[in-house]
Predict the 3D structure of the following.
Amino acid sequence: MKKYLLIFVAALLCAAMLACGSKTVEPKAEVPEATEVPVTEAPATEVPETEAPATEVPVTEAPATEAPATEEPAAEETAVPVEKTEEAAYVDFDDMSFWVNGTKFTLGVSTLQDMIDAGVPFDEKDLANAGNNLNPNYQSQGFRIELGKYWSAQVYTMNDTKENKTISECYICEVYLPNHENEQQDILKFAFPLDLTMEQLTANAGEPDDVSHFDGDNGYYSDTLTYKKDSDKYFGYNQFKFEFIKGVLKYVTITYLP
């Protein structure tokens, strides 16, 4: 009995002790496991290497200058005197002249007005156009010089300036003569005779720069001998042109081009 009583008392004491010491313990807030935030790597941007384009600078190669070989002075030779001839040069690019009634006119120098003032017998209809305008870098119409019935030579002028000019102000750049074999005239003259042969021409002026030959029907043939000098300003030539028909001088054209 006592044993059970003691057990009972002991149980009460234990219960009282448990009641006095208990308290509600709130559970800790559960800390969520660390969330692994994926690290987003920015994609590596590959910057293309920009190469400056290579600029090819042309290299101007100076022409190799060869030192002139030093020659031993040649032994002096006795100069042979050259006999002078009074015969005029038939082809002279430094003096491209002709004469009308004894007055000298020079291509590239004398103007149409100079010829008019000198009383050159021009065709009256042509002279009516002498005051017309001539544009820069243009050649005029022909102005006929009357030599006889149904026979005339022609001169042309040129404006090589940058301004408009009247035809009469411009210099003579060309003279053209159709020669008449069986007729004579004393108005227009040249440094060469108009009964000139090809042999006489080449003997005086040397070999021409251009030679052309044409054979036609019934024994017809022609030869054109042209002497040329390059123009400094334009594409073309200064020239003396002689056309022979069956060996006889038929056409003469002298052209000046600056």
